[in-house]
Amino acid sequence: MPYDEGLAQRIRESLHAKHEITEKKMFGGLAFLSRGYMFIGITGDTLMARVGPEYYETALQRPNVRLMDFTGKPMNGYVFVDPPGFESDSDLFDWAERCHRFVESLPRKKDKRGRINAP
């Protein structure tokens, strides 16, 4: 299923001040990455949000949020957010900001030679 290009543009606009954000087609949709880590994405018209393990259970209690389970097995730390959950730009910005903060807290990824990637 193709991803919602209008939603992709809204995410781009909410992230405009962030540096080193890349986009990659994956999971049959579009993912936004920071320092090589996927933190938010789109599949169809649904938001994929990497909230991390500490906020995971709390996120699942929010309206319009459900388990992210591509393979039939839930992905801990990731949730799907259905469109009513990010209808307003402020809600979308909050999801993007929370997810970006989480991946910024992770250690830098190493390249194929074992070197830590530069900032």
How does this structure look, described?
There is one protein chain. This protein is an alpha+beta fold and 119 residues long. The protein has a single domain (5-104), classed as Aspartate Aminotransferase, domain 1, CATH 3.90.1150. It is 29% helix and 26% strand. The chain has 3 helices and 6 strands. It has helices spanning 5-14, 53-60, 89-104, and strands at residues 21-26, 29-34, 37-43, 46-50, 65-67, 78-81. The protein has a 6-stranded antiparallel β-sheet with strand order 1-2-3-4-6-5. A hairpin with a 2-residue loop joins strand 2 and strand 3 (37-43). The longest helix has 16 residues, at 89-104. It is globular and about 40 Å long. It starts with a helix and ends in a 15-residue tail after the last helix. The relative contact order is 0.18.
Outline:
With 119 residues, the chain is an alpha+beta fold. It contains three helices and six strands.
